[in-house]
From TrEMBL:
One of its GO terms (cellular component) is cytoplasmic microtubule. This is TGRM2 protein. PANTHER family: CLASP (PTHR21567), TOG ARRAY REGULATOR OF AXONEMAL MICROTUBULES PROTEIN 2 (PTHR21567:SF42). Gene3D superfamilies: Leucine-rich Repeat Variant (1.25.10.10). One of its GO terms (molecular function) is microtubule binding. GO terms for biological process: microtubule cytoskeleton organization. Residues 13-178 form the CLASP N-terminal domain. InterPro entries: ARM-like, ARM-type_fold, CLASP_N_dom.
Length: 212
């Protein structure tokens, strides 16, 4: 496994797309069967794989996105430190890529949400996606943010005053988005948050009468 990892990183640094494919496949195999081997060089591995997500060759890009999904499945919270960067790159792929790349990026975001620390995923999605000017980025960010919020639950979300207020404002904004799916996710968030007394008060305090 150690030798394969060294080879995989060498292949990923190559200019040859077929070698890059070989490197990504090797990382994916190691994640599935020898995940502990990856921990010692996780930052380097994550950077190398994430870099290939934006490859102009769609086959390499797709492989890199799927490989990130395998890393999240295998390493779970050990991937927390990589979340911000990965989310930013994956969301970038949902608005300037073919449909099959969009789908793969969304699937990997879903896998990430299920495996890393929920608060890390939530912060990354809020920072990189919810305020984005592109409609599709907001849609996918809202979809996965809703999943994280449901995982955490309204009671825990209400425990941090600053974050609670930010969530209310974001949910209201999403509920008024120009895209119907994004509006739906925003309404679902509001519906969930309003089950908690603190969020009901926050809504009246921090949202304008017009928005209410």
């Amino acid at each position: 496994p150690q030798k394969l990892l060294v080879s995989a990183l060498t292949w990923l640094s190559s200019d040859n797309w077929e070698l890059k494919e070989k490197g990504l496949l090797s990382i994916k195999c190691l994640a599935i069967s020898h995940s502990k081997v990856l921990l010692g060089r996780l930052r380097e591995i994550s950077l190398a794989v994430t870099k290939e997500v934006t490859s102009l060759r769609s086959k390499v890009s797709h492989s890199a996105i799927v490989t990130l999904g395998e890393l999240f499945v295998a390493l779970k919270k050990d991937m927390d430190s990589e979340v911000d960067e990965v989310v930013q790159v994956l969301l970038q792929m949902v608005w300037n890529s073919p449909e099959f790349i969009q789908k793969a990026a969304s699937q990997t975001l879903g896998i990430m949400v299920e495996n890393v620390t929920p608060s890390r995923a939530m912060t990354a999605l809020m920072d990189s996606g919810i305020q984005h000017r592109h409609v599709l980025v907001r849609k996918y960010a809202a979809k996965h943010l809703l999943t994280v919020m449901e995982k955490i639950g309204a009671t825990k979300l209400a425990g941090t005053p600053l974050r609670a207020e930010k969530l209310v404002r974001l949910a209201v904004k999403l509920a008024q988005d120009c895209h119907k799916d994004t509006r739906y996710y925003g309404w679902k968030m509001l519906h969930m948050l309003m089950d908690h007394e603190k969020f009901k008060r926050l809504l009246k305090q921090s949202v304008s009468a017009h928005d209410l």
